[in-house]
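Note to self: the last two entries modelled the partners one at a time, which told us nothing about the interface. This time every component goes in together.
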Amino acid sequence: MRDETPQRAFLEKVIELRLPSKLGYERVAMDTASSLARRMGFATDRVDSLKTAISEAVTNAIEHGNLQDAAMKVVVLLTAREDELIVSVADQGRQQLSQACVFTRPEIGEAFGREDKGGWGIWLIRELMDEVEFTTAPSGGNQVRMVIHLEP
Amino acid sequence: MMLEDELTVSTRERDEVAVIDLVGDVTTFAEEKINTAYREVTSKGARLVLLNFRQNDYINSAGIAILIGIVTEVNRNHQKLAVSGLSQHFQKIFRMVGLAQYAGIYQDEEEALAGFKSLT
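The predicted structure of the combined assembly is written out below.
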Protein backbone atom coordinates (compact mmCIF):
# COMPACT_ATOMS: atom_id res chain seq x y z
CA MET A 1 0.00 0.00 0.00
CA ARG A 2 1.25 3.45 -0.74
CA ASP A 3 1.64 6.21 1.79
CA GLU A 4 1.95 3.72 4.66
CA THR A 5 4.19 5.99 6.72
CA PRO A 6 4.42 5.44 10.49
CA GLN A 7 2.52 8.70 11.05
CA ARG A 8 -0.33 7.58 8.83
CA ALA A 9 -0.47 4.13 10.39
CA PHE A 10 -0.70 5.84 13.79
CA LEU A 11 -3.46 8.24 12.77
CA GLU A 12 -5.55 5.40 11.41
CA LYS A 13 -5.85 4.08 14.92
CA VAL A 14 -7.13 7.28 16.47
CA ILE A 15 -10.85 7.88 16.88
CA GLU A 16 -12.00 11.40 17.75
CA LEU A 17 -15.40 12.26 19.16
CA ARG A 18 -16.69 15.78 19.68
CA LEU A 19 -19.67 15.60 22.00
CA PRO A 20 -22.13 18.32 22.99
CA SER A 21 -22.01 19.16 26.70
CA LYS A 22 -25.33 17.62 27.52
CA LEU A 23 -25.78 14.76 29.96
CA GLY A 24 -26.55 11.55 28.11
CA TYR A 25 -23.91 12.05 25.41
CA GLU A 26 -21.42 10.23 27.61
CA ARG A 27 -23.25 7.09 26.43
CA VAL A 28 -21.98 7.68 22.91
CA ALA A 29 -18.40 7.73 24.24
CA MET A 30 -19.08 4.59 26.29
CA ASP A 31 -20.51 2.72 23.32
CA THR A 32 -17.67 3.73 21.02
CA ALA A 33 -14.96 2.83 23.55
CA SER A 34 -16.67 -0.46 24.34
CA SER A 35 -16.91 -1.41 20.66
CA LEU A 36 -13.26 -0.55 20.05
CA ALA A 37 -12.01 -2.33 23.18
CA ARG A 38 -13.91 -5.51 22.33
CA ARG A 39 -12.39 -5.51 18.86
CA MET A 40 -8.94 -5.07 20.39
CA GLY A 41 -9.52 -8.21 22.45
CA PHE A 42 -10.16 -6.81 25.94
CA ALA A 43 -12.00 -9.18 28.30
CA THR A 44 -15.57 -8.31 29.30
CA ASP A 45 -14.69 -7.16 32.82
CA ARG A 46 -12.02 -4.80 31.46
CA VAL A 47 -14.45 -3.41 28.89
CA ASP A 48 -16.94 -2.80 31.73
CA SER A 49 -14.26 -0.96 33.74
CA LEU A 50 -13.41 1.15 30.70
CA LYS A 51 -17.07 2.00 30.13
CA THR A 52 -17.47 3.21 33.72
CA ALA A 53 -14.23 5.21 33.61
CA ILE A 54 -15.01 6.95 30.31
CA SER A 55 -18.58 7.70 31.35
CA GLU A 56 -17.34 9.33 34.56
CA ALA A 57 -14.68 11.35 32.72
CA VAL A 58 -17.10 12.60 30.07
CA THR A 59 -19.83 13.31 32.64
CA ASN A 60 -17.35 15.39 34.68
CA ALA A 61 -16.34 17.29 31.55
CA ILE A 62 -19.97 17.99 30.66
CA GLU A 63 -21.16 18.90 34.15
CA HIS A 64 -18.18 20.61 35.71
CA GLY A 65 -15.65 21.50 33.00
CA ASN A 66 -18.19 22.88 30.54
CA LEU A 67 -20.98 23.61 33.05
CA GLN A 68 -23.52 21.86 30.80
CA ASP A 69 -23.30 24.52 28.11
CA ALA A 70 -24.43 22.32 25.18
CA ALA A 71 -22.60 24.53 22.69
CA MET A 72 -19.29 23.60 24.30
CA LYS A 73 -17.65 20.41 23.23
CA VAL A 74 -16.09 17.52 25.05
CA VAL A 75 -13.36 16.01 22.91
CA VAL A 76 -12.64 12.32 23.37
CA LEU A 77 -9.63 10.73 21.69
CA LEU A 78 -9.33 6.96 21.61
CA THR A 79 -5.94 5.69 20.53
CA ALA A 80 -5.62 1.97 19.92
CA ARG A 81 -2.11 0.63 20.31
CA GLU A 82 -0.88 -2.92 20.03
CA ASP A 83 -0.95 -3.50 23.78
CA GLU A 84 -3.08 -0.69 25.22
CA LEU A 85 -5.93 1.70 24.68
CA ILE A 86 -5.38 5.35 25.53
CA VAL A 87 -8.39 7.53 26.21
CA SER A 88 -8.15 11.27 26.50
CA VAL A 89 -11.12 13.41 27.53
CA ALA A 90 -10.84 17.20 27.33
CA ASP A 91 -13.32 19.96 28.07
CA GLN A 92 -13.20 23.69 27.35
CA GLY A 93 -12.47 24.67 30.92
CA ARG A 94 -15.34 26.90 31.98
CA GLN A 95 -14.44 25.60 35.42
CA GLN A 96 -11.09 24.23 36.52
CA LEU A 97 -10.90 20.88 38.24
CA SER A 98 -9.57 21.34 41.76
CA GLN A 99 -6.51 19.32 42.68
CA ALA A 100 -8.27 18.27 45.89
CA CYS A 101 -10.89 16.43 43.80
CA VAL A 102 -8.19 14.52 41.97
CA PHE A 103 -6.73 12.81 45.02
CA THR A 104 -9.73 12.45 47.30
CA ARG A 105 -10.75 9.00 48.38
CA PRO A 106 -14.40 9.34 49.33
CA GLU A 107 -15.72 7.46 52.36
CA ILE A 108 -19.25 6.17 52.39
CA GLY A 109 -19.58 6.77 56.15
CA GLU A 110 -18.93 10.48 55.60
CA ALA A 111 -21.22 10.59 52.57
CA PHE A 112 -24.22 9.66 54.75
CA GLY A 113 -23.91 12.97 56.56
CA ARG A 114 -23.44 15.10 53.46
CA GLU A 115 -26.21 16.71 51.47
CA ASP A 116 -24.31 15.89 48.26
CA LYS A 117 -23.49 12.20 48.38
CA GLY A 118 -21.57 12.25 45.10
CA GLY A 119 -17.90 12.74 44.34
CA TRP A 120 -17.11 9.13 43.42
CA GLY A 121 -16.36 9.62 39.73
CA ILE A 122 -12.67 10.54 39.75
CA TRP A 123 -11.89 7.98 42.41
CA LEU A 124 -13.59 5.28 40.33
CA ILE A 125 -11.57 6.30 37.26
CA ARG A 126 -8.34 5.98 39.25
CA GLU A 127 -9.34 2.60 40.65
CA LEU A 128 -10.49 1.12 37.35
CA MET A 129 -7.82 2.29 34.89
CA ASP A 130 -4.17 1.25 34.78
CA GLU A 131 -2.79 4.79 34.35
CA VAL A 132 -4.57 8.08 34.99
CA GLU A 133 -3.26 11.60 34.60
CA PHE A 134 -5.05 14.91 35.03
CA THR A 135 -3.60 17.85 33.16
CA THR A 136 -4.58 21.13 31.56
CA ALA A 137 -5.19 20.90 27.81
CA PRO A 138 -3.29 23.30 25.49
CA SER A 139 -6.62 25.10 25.00
CA GLY A 140 -6.84 25.68 28.77
CA GLY A 141 -9.49 23.09 29.53
CA ASN A 142 -9.27 20.13 31.85
CA GLN A 143 -7.89 16.97 30.39
CA VAL A 144 -7.76 13.44 31.70
CA ARG A 145 -5.64 10.78 30.06
CA MET A 146 -6.41 7.18 30.93
CA VAL A 147 -4.66 4.03 29.81
CA ILE A 148 -5.87 0.46 29.98
CA HIS A 149 -3.40 -2.32 29.18
CA LEU A 150 -4.27 -5.30 27.07
CA GLU A 151 -3.12 -8.30 29.03
CA PRO A 152 -1.88 -11.25 27.01
CA MET B 1 -32.84 10.33 20.71
CA MET B 2 -32.77 8.16 23.82
CA LEU B 3 -30.08 9.87 25.85
CA GLU B 4 -31.73 10.15 29.22
CA ASP B 5 -34.41 8.85 31.51
CA GLU B 6 -34.28 5.21 30.57
CA LEU B 7 -35.38 3.79 33.89
CA THR B 8 -38.61 2.11 34.90
CA VAL B 9 -39.21 1.80 38.64
CA SER B 10 -42.05 -0.21 40.14
CA THR B 11 -42.85 -1.60 43.56
CA ARG B 12 -44.46 -4.82 44.81
CA GLU B 13 -44.54 -6.89 47.97
CA ARG B 14 -43.32 -10.46 48.31
CA ASP B 15 -42.95 -12.44 51.56
CA GLU B 16 -43.09 -9.21 53.60
CA VAL B 17 -40.32 -7.71 51.54
CA ALA B 18 -40.93 -4.47 49.64
CA VAL B 19 -39.39 -5.11 46.24
CA ILE B 20 -38.40 -2.09 44.17
CA ASP B 21 -37.73 -3.19 40.59
CA LEU B 22 -35.27 -1.05 38.68
CA VAL B 23 -35.21 -1.73 34.96
CA GLY B 24 -32.88 0.49 32.96
CA ASP B 25 -30.13 2.96 33.69
CA VAL B 26 -29.40 4.49 37.07
CA THR B 27 -27.99 7.98 36.54
CA THR B 28 -28.79 11.47 37.77
CA PHE B 29 -32.16 11.25 35.98
CA ALA B 30 -33.23 8.36 38.24
CA GLU B 31 -33.26 10.30 41.50
CA GLU B 32 -36.90 11.25 41.72
CA LYS B 33 -38.21 7.87 40.59
CA ILE B 34 -36.10 5.89 43.04
CA ASN B 35 -36.74 8.21 45.97
CA THR B 36 -40.48 8.23 45.27
CA ALA B 37 -40.60 4.42 45.18
CA TYR B 38 -38.62 4.19 48.41
CA ARG B 39 -40.85 6.74 50.18
CA GLU B 40 -43.94 4.88 48.97
CA VAL B 41 -42.89 1.50 50.42
CA THR B 42 -41.65 3.17 53.61
CA SER B 43 -44.95 4.99 54.13
CA LYS B 44 -46.64 1.57 53.90
CA GLY B 45 -44.46 0.37 56.75
CA ALA B 46 -41.84 -1.68 54.90
CA ARG B 47 -39.14 -3.05 57.20
CA LEU B 48 -37.30 -5.07 54.54
CA VAL B 49 -36.48 -3.39 51.25
CA LEU B 50 -35.02 -5.05 48.18
CA LEU B 51 -33.63 -3.05 45.27
CA ASN B 52 -34.00 -5.53 42.44
CA PHE B 53 -31.86 -4.59 39.45
CA ARG B 54 -32.05 -6.30 36.06
CA GLN B 55 -28.42 -6.60 35.05
CA ASN B 56 -28.54 -2.85 34.40
CA ASP B 57 -26.03 -1.76 31.84
CA TYR B 58 -25.35 1.72 33.14
CA ILE B 59 -25.11 2.83 36.75
CA ASN B 60 -22.85 5.85 37.20
CA SER B 61 -21.49 7.78 40.16
CA ALA B 62 -24.61 9.96 40.27
CA GLY B 63 -26.64 6.76 40.51
CA ILE B 64 -24.37 5.54 43.28
CA ALA B 65 -24.97 8.81 45.15
CA ILE B 66 -28.74 8.23 44.89
CA LEU B 67 -28.32 4.72 46.34
CA ILE B 68 -26.17 6.08 49.18
CA GLY B 69 -29.08 8.42 49.87
CA ILE B 70 -31.39 5.41 50.13
CA VAL B 71 -28.96 3.68 52.51
CA THR B 72 -28.94 6.83 54.66
CA GLU B 73 -32.73 6.74 54.90
CA VAL B 74 -32.82 2.97 55.49
CA ASN B 75 -30.44 3.39 58.43
CA ARG B 76 -32.44 6.30 59.80
CA ASN B 77 -35.69 4.34 59.52
CA HIS B 78 -34.20 1.12 60.98
CA GLN B 79 -35.04 -0.89 57.89
CA LYS B 80 -32.98 -3.62 56.24
CA LEU B 81 -31.80 -3.25 52.67
CA ALA B 82 -30.68 -5.79 50.10
CA VAL B 83 -29.71 -5.53 46.46
CA SER B 84 -30.15 -8.17 43.77
CA GLY B 85 -29.71 -8.61 40.04
CA LEU B 86 -26.55 -6.53 39.62
CA SER B 87 -24.08 -7.55 36.92
CA GLN B 88 -20.67 -8.77 38.10
CA HIS B 89 -19.20 -5.37 37.24
CA PHE B 90 -21.64 -3.40 39.35
CA GLN B 91 -21.40 -5.89 42.22
CA LYS B 92 -17.68 -5.08 42.18
CA ILE B 93 -18.35 -1.32 42.09
CA PHE B 94 -20.82 -1.58 45.00
CA ARG B 95 -18.19 -3.42 47.04
CA MET B 96 -15.50 -0.86 46.13
CA VAL B 97 -17.70 2.05 47.19
CA GLY B 98 -18.62 0.33 50.46
CA LEU B 99 -22.34 -0.13 49.78
CA ALA B 100 -21.92 -3.85 50.49
CA GLN B 101 -21.33 -3.02 54.16
CA TYR B 102 -24.85 -1.62 54.41
CA ALA B 103 -26.84 -3.81 52.03
CA GLY B 104 -26.67 -7.53 51.34
CA ILE B 105 -25.70 -8.12 47.73
CA TYR B 106 -27.37 -11.15 46.15
CA GLN B 107 -27.29 -12.66 42.70
CA ASP B 108 -31.04 -12.65 42.24
CA GLU B 109 -34.37 -11.98 43.91
CA GLU B 110 -34.83 -15.53 45.25
CA GLU B 111 -31.44 -15.47 46.93
CA ALA B 112 -32.19 -12.08 48.46
CA LEU B 113 -35.55 -13.23 49.83
CA ALA B 114 -33.85 -16.27 51.37
CA GLY B 115 -31.25 -13.93 52.83
CA PHE B 116 -33.94 -11.77 54.46
CA LYS B 117 -35.63 -14.88 55.81
CA SER B 118 -32.46 -15.93 57.58
CA LEU B 119 -32.42 -12.54 59.33
CA THR B 120 -35.96 -12.78 60.70
